[in-house]
């Protein structure tokens, strides 16, 4: 090999190798210090991109879990308000049943009335329960209700499906075909409640009326004439239209006796209905009463409203949501208070008896909403579990891509450290080799 002094190639080669070893050592040191084998796109461009997407996904899933849990907290507040309403309605029904008992005087009923009035005020307090400044049960967060609102529809499916409006009342049979035992000389006492006012009428004798005339509006005992437009009765399998405008049909698809309010919305709702068949001797036809009073509220009266339902974002993409609308739980919407502020009257035995039906329908409204809230709570619980599993799985995948094997990286670090020291030693040796040229110049 020629002896030169201008270019020390051995030293340059060794220096280049030292630089490579130094960079490799720096990378190993960074991986060991950070615990990640990919610290920048330079380390692994595609792996870094995939890992960053997964990190964003995990952060989004974490926020979804928080959203679902916060939503469940709101629903717990709503459930508490509804449960309090259910408890109050249960107590009120007990009091009204007491008021309907003639062991009480009208003075006693007045005392019970005062208790009822205060309890009705508490129903409005329950409806105004708040979560994070949002009033939950006052109807301000309900689902959309089309114009002009919905009509109360009470359905009785216990009568024979072949009944027609031209049949005699005495020919009425139950759904199994058995006669109700309504005698020609019997009478029917019929009452319903609208706007807190109880309308009562008596059809006597029943032989003078057909089924279509069974619930015609005649003058009641107070001299008031109920309007025929307040309530209508038909036999049909089409109950009416719900809040979305969709036709609602009877459960079994057969014709049923339908009591429908004549006016849409809360102000026109029929909040209670009672039918009492009384024999000529004054005894009650319990068989007929059991069948005729076996109705349910198929469509609830609601005012026209835009869609104000609450939305819980529980997914990482747009519109991955759970929505719930809270029906109005105020006393007016439950039929216990009129628009003028007056409450349901139980001043007489007959009015107290009619009020029992009002409280049953109000209880049904509260329990339906409680069921809806409970179902969404359950769904959010499952959602939290699913989101947690998804977050854990994503985290595991991201870990495989990006997390460093510390044992492996420590081995690499030690190797690169030794190589760097060796290169430094060899560079010193290469530099010393050039000095041997000086011996030729002496």
């Amino acid at each position: 090999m020629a002896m030169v002094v201008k270019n020390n190639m051995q030293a340059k080669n060794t220096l280049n190798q030292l630089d490579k070893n130094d960079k490799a050592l720096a990378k190993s040191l960074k991986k060991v210090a950070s615990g990640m084998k990919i610290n920048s796109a330079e380390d692994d461009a595609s792996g870094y991109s995939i890992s960053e997407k997964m990190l964003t996904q995990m952060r989004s899933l974490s926020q979804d879990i928080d959203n679902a849990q916060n939503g469940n907290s709101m629903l717990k507040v709503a459930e508490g308000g509804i449960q309090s309403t259910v408890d109050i309605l249960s107590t009120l029904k007990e009091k009204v049943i007491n008021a309907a008992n003639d062991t009480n005087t009208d003075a006693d009923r007045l005392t019970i009335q005062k208790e009822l009035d205060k309890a009705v005020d508490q129903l409005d307090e329950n409806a105004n329960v708040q979560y994070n400044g949002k009033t939950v049960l006052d109807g301000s967060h309900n689902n959309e209700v089309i114009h002009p609102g919905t009509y109360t529809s009470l359905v009785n499916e216990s009568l024979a499906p072949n009944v027609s409006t031209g049949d005699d009342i005495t020919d009425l049979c139950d759904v199994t075909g058995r006669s109700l035992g309504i005698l020609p000389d019997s009478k029917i006492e019929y009452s319903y409640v609208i706007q807190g006012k109880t309308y009562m009428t008596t059809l006597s004798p029943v032989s003078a009326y057909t089924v279509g005339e069974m619930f015609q509006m005649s003058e009641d005992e107070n001299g008031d004439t109920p309007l025929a437009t307040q309530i209508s009765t038909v036999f049909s399998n089409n109950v009416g239209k719900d809040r979305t405008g969709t036709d609602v049909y009877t459960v079994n698809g057969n014709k049923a006796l339908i009591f429908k309010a004549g006016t849409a919305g809360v102000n026109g709702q029929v909040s209670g209905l009672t039918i009492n068949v009384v024999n000529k001797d004054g005894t009650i036809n319990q068989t007929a009463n059991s069948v005729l009073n076996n109705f349910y509220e198929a469509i609830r009266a609601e005012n026209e409203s835009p869609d104000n339902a609450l939305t819980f974002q529980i997914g990482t993409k747009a519109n991955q949501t759970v929505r719930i609308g809270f029906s109005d739980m105020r006393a007016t919407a439950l039929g216990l208070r009129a628009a003028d502020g007056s409450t349901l009257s139980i001043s007489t035995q007959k009015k107290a008896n009619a009020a029992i039906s009002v409280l049953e329908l109000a209880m049904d409204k509260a329990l339906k909403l409680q069921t809806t809230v409970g179902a969404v709570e359950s769904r959010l619980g499952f959602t939290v579990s699913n989101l947690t599993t998804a977050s854990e799985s994503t985290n595991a995948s991201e870990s495989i891509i990006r997390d460093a094997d510390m044992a492996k990286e420590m081995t690499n670090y030690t190797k690169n450290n030794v190589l760097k020291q060796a290169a430094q030693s060899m560079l010193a040796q290469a530099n010393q080799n050039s000095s041997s040229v000086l011996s030729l110049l002496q």
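The mean pLDDT is 88. Residues 146-306 form one domain.
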